[in-house]
Amino acid sequence: MANFIRTTFIFIVLLFNFCVFNGYAEVITLRADEWCPYNCQPNANQRGFMIELAEIVFKKAGHTIDYQIMPWARAIQDTRKGKVNAIVGAGKEDAPDFIFPENEQGQMISAFYVKKEESWRYNNMESLKDKILGVINDYSYNTEIDKYIKENKKNDKLIQVASGNDALTTNVKKLLAGRIHVLVEDRNVMAQYIKTNSQDNAIQEAGTSGSDTLYFAFSPANTNSAAYAKLLSDGVVELRKSGELKIILEKYGLKDWK
User: How far apart (Å, rounded) are the C-alpha atoms in residues 29 and 88?
Assistant: First the structure.
């Protein structure tokens, strides 16, 4: 009987370990460039509200996340190949071949920024015709802006592209130095940047160009992607119902986009 009990115990332990390491409890890898307040520094107290959403939703399902910062273009490439599970803060135009949750995890508003003393204001894409616009490599802003960037990307008198982990900082430096006239960025991200870097007296918003929904976009090469996307889609709905979403957003000075 003792041998039977011991054998049964060992079998249960082995079965548990098999389940854990074969898809029941996963480490889900998330990558993006820093885009606070959506996703901030991994070791910060406030890692970004989208990261906090993911942590809560996946933890309830028994999973953990591994979130790290890398350049946006590389994050897309590695996720497309299946080296990474998902990118954070993507619009559907960023990676149309990726797997997206049915319900979004955020919303962005594309805004234009100029130096404080500038009188220029954005009215439509035609108002950019004599301006050098600073953008970030492989970012999707919205259909209208993306089309303009694609048409003029090879003309550095109209478009200049920044890359790397600190692409926004690069664009801000170029703006203040007069190397570009305008930069485009999400309104929440720029507000966070201006506050953190004490740039209130140097930079001002000069108009907006529509909104877009944001998601965790999952790798088309990963067989678990559809299941993960559904977990997040359903999870955000539940967090909204429970009031947890409101609490998380308030930590970042934000309100629910719905």
Answer: 10
Query: Tokens 């960037």, residue?
Result: 149
**Measuring CA to CA, how many Å separate 21 from each of 15, 16, 25?**
10, 9, 7
pTM: 0.86
pLDDT reported for residue 19: 44
Residues 72-129 have pLDDT tens digits of: 999 999 999 999 999 999 999 999 999 999 999 999 999 999 999 999 999 999 999 9
CATH topology of domain 107-212: D-Maltodextrin-Binding Protein; domain 2 (3.40.190)
Write out the CATH class of domain 26-106+213-251: alpha beta
d(CA 81, CA 107): 26
CA-derived radius of gyration, the chain? 21
Beta bridge partners of 107: 213
Residue type, 54: A
What residue spans define the domains of the chain? Answer: 26-106+213-251, 107-212
